[in-house]
Structures are given as C-alpha cells and as structure tokens.
Amino acid sequence: MENSQEKSIVFFDLDGTLLNDNKQINDSTRQAIAELKEKGHIVAIATGRAPFFFDHIREELDIDTYVSYNGSYVVLEGQVLFTNPLNAQALETLTDLALNHNHAVVYMDHEAMRANVPDSDRVSESIGTLQVGILPTHDPLYYKERPIYQSLLFCAEGEEKPYESLVETFDFIRWHPFSVDVLPSGGSKFKGILKITEKLGIPLERQYAFGDALNDLEMLRGIPNSVAMGNGLPEAKEAAKWITTSNDEDGIAHGLKLAGLL
Q1: Which of 48, 50, 87, 209 has its CA 20 to 30 A from that of 216?
Q2: Exposure letters 209-240 (e unless 16+ CB within 10 A, then b)
Q3: What is the pLDDT of residue 41?
C-alpha cells in the first residue's frame, strides 16, 4: 500500500451514481472498484442515505469508509469519526407541529428508523420508492432516547409553512412529493468528506468525487477532480470537472478513466 501522501481517495454518491436505475451495481462498476483498490486507492461512499440503507452495498464492495446522512454521520475504516445530530429541542418542536397538522415524522439514527404514527400511506409510499426493503416501525418517543441524525417529514408540497420557524436550525430538502428530509442546517457531504481527508492527510489534488444530484453540488465544487454522471442534473454537470456516461452506461468505469485513475 502506498503512503497517504501518494494514494488517492474516491468518494461515490449512491443513487443515480454508483447504483444503476434498478438500484443495483453494474458489473463494470464492480470491476472498476476492485481495480481502484488493487492500485492502492481508497474507495469511499458519500450519500444522503442512512447507514442501514446501504449495508449490503458496503459488504458487496468491501467499503468501510463513508459519509452518510449528507455529512451528519461519518465513518473512517469502520470507526465513527464525526457526528452532527439534529437539535433535540427543535426536533420536539417539529414533532409537536407535525402532530397538530396530521403530518407523520420518521426519526433516523445510525441503526434504525421509527415513525411517530403507527400507519401512514405517505410513509410507506415514499420510502417504498427507495427499494431498501424496510419500513419504519412505530415508536413515537424514539427521538427522546438517542441522537437522531435525520428526520423525514411527510407533507405535500405547499404544506411546509408551519415549519418555517425552524429553518435556522434545520434544512428542509424535498425528495418526494410527500416527503422532505430534515437535516442539521448547513451540513453537507463535503463537510463530512473534509473530516476524512483531513484525518488521513490526503491532499486535495488526490481527492476525487462522483455525483449526480443537488446534494452533491458542494462536493463536486469543493473537490476539483470531480465527475458528474451523464444522467445527472445540469447543475451537477456544471459543477464538475468531467462528465461521464450515465449510471446505466458504465458511467463509473468511464469516469475513472477520464480522471486518469484507471
């Protein structure tokens, strides 16, 4: 293995990037990741997903370094390096507002997710689109007993008004017609990545990132050697140094070649 000043680290977003449109890993991607490791480079994940939403991917690709929850839960070589949980008092205020407006809330820590209501069509429909095979069980007090790194608020577009008083504490990012992510204000994948690269002492010129969506923009801009997927949003393509083919068309392997890593 090369020393930390010579090897590179490559961060991959998951949905729309490392995963194809069927939420699976292409054979060409699997082979490219193996080749990266053989060359002594570090392969890492940078995602908005919860850790328990991609256990199987980490196991399949043998990856033990990752940024999850868009920077709120960071793990280096299997050890927790940094956490940024939601403010507990503000989360209680959010919960009270949600109950008053019949909006479901899901609380997510590093191990599991629980809902504040027993059954919700909006919860099952939106989380079902992630194809992770699990839905939250009911535990309305889950957020009182442990740090929560992300919450999901289930309201239709235009129903966010009651929560505007919390925008200084939380970022609200809509990901589904029925649901918004609730994240610590000002957090990002890039800020989580910095915790890893600073700890490892890997210089900026040996850092690489792949992404496709709005939550990848700070990462794609902050890391000069960045690659946007062909299926990515125009903003992602504008932010990146290179544009590869789509996640369904060997985009990872092609992008690593564009970057000179393979």
Answers
A1: 87
A2: bbbbbebbbbbbebbebbbbbbbbbeebbebb
A3: 97
CB within 8 Å of 102: residues ≥ 6 apart: none
- For residue 137, CA distances in Å to 29, 100, 141, 154 come to 34, 21, 12, 15
- What are the residues facing 45 on neighbouring strands? 12, 66
Inter-CA distances, 236 with 36, 210, 242, Å: 24, 10, 10
The encoded tokens of residue 259 equal: 């970057």
| Residue 143's pLDDT band (cuts 50, 70, 90) | very high
3-state helix, strand, coil in the chain (%, to 5): 35, 25, 40
The residues assigned a catalytic role are: 13
Grade residue 2 by pLDDT with cuts at 50, 70 and 90: very low
Cα–Cα distance for residue pair 74/84, rounded to 1 Å: 9
Beta carbons of 67 and 47 less than 8 angstroms apart: yes
pLDDT for 114 equals: 97
- Whether the predicted pLDDT of 59 surpasses 50: yes
Query: Looking at the chain, how many residues does it have?
Result: 262
Segment 70-119, tens digit of pLDDT: 999 999 999 999 999 999 999 999 999 999 999 999 999 999 999 999 98
Domains and CATH numbers, the chain: 9-83+187-258 (3.40.50.1000), 88-184 (3.30.1240.10)
Q: What percent of the chain has pLDDT over 70?
A: 98
- Helix (H), strand (E) at residue 55: helix 55-61
**CA dist., res. 116 & res. 101, Å (int):** 13
pLDDT digits (tens, 9 = 90+) for 31-42: 999 999 999 999
